[in-house]
Design goal:
- The chain has one domain.
- It starts with a strand and ends in a 10-residue tail after the last helix.
- 5% of the residues lie in helices and 44% in strands.
- The protein is mainly beta.
- It is built from two helices and 17 strands.
């Protein structure tokens, strides 16, 4: 079973700041859905902000169905028990009473899954995150119509950011504009990202691009550790991480 670990290092100045202002560290998977878009739309993990945080993903997947359409800020509610699936398999929902079945399928992507539903439903992909089964994706554009199919492919990228008022399993969209995307390595690999004293994300061991992953500085009128001069941005009233 494949495994990938992300180590997150956060500068002490920001640990104090985020703790004071009740921000949490958040993590999401990047998934390719039916439209071909690269989507991160579920908070797969969150934690209090600490100097060191570790997130471990295992290639241990399950599928479930939901009767709710995508709604940012709403927690996912499953309408069926989840059923473990392997890559290259289909998860089929013939009816709500029957629940999900799984099977090998020539129609399923080799590096992902196929959700095949007869009733109108949304697909939910679940993965092992830090040893717990967590939703990592839901059909992004509302429930699919009757007799619909959706290919779902986990991509080798994850997203990290900071946010207040979070709960694992919550659907979200707007916050992903503020996320930093990290490439996953090969099976068994460990990556490390740093949120440095300047308020910039970067992958340790790679050149720092200070034009990417850099964020503004104000939160509810309170100055962050980034000064106006250091941030190079005028105050907007919002703090984006």
């Amino acid at each position: 079973m494949g495994q990938y670990t992300l180590n997150v290092e956060i500068d002490d100045t920001w640990v104090d700041y985020f703790t004071q202002h009740e921000y949490h560290f958040c993590f999401a998977r990047v998934i390719r859905g039916a439209s071909g878009e690269h989507i991160s739309n579920v908070i797969a993990h969150s934690d209090i902000v600490m100097p060191s945080i570790q997130v471990t993903l295992k290639d241990d997947f399950a599928m479930a169905a939901s009767s709710q359409g995508f709604s940012s800020g709403t927690k996912i509610a499953l309408a069926t028990p989840h059923r473990r699936v392997d890559k290259g398999q289909s998860a089929t929902l013939p009816s709500w009473d029957a629940g999900l079945t799984k099977s090998d399928s020539d129609s399923a992507p080799r590096d992902g899954f196929l959700f095949d539903t007869t009733p109108a439903a949304a697909a939910v992909l679940i993965q092992s995150v830090n040893g717990k089964n967590r939703p990592v994706y839901i059909t992004p554009h509302g429930v699919m119509g009757q007799s619909s199919k959706e290919p779902i492919v986990p991509l080798p990228r994850v997203a990290v950011w900071f946010q207040r008022d979070v709960e694992i399993g919550t659907m979200m969209d707007a916050w992903m504009r503020k996320a930093f995307f990290v490439p996953m390595g090969t099976d068994g690999s460990i990556s490390t990202v740093l949120y440095d004293a300047k308020g910039c994300w970067h992958v340790v061991g790679q050149p720092i691009d200070y034009t990417h992953g850099r964020f503004a500085k104000h939160l509810a009128g309170v100055m962050s550790p980034l000064s106006d001069k250091a941030s190079g941005m005028s105050g907007s009233g919002d703090m984006m991480f």
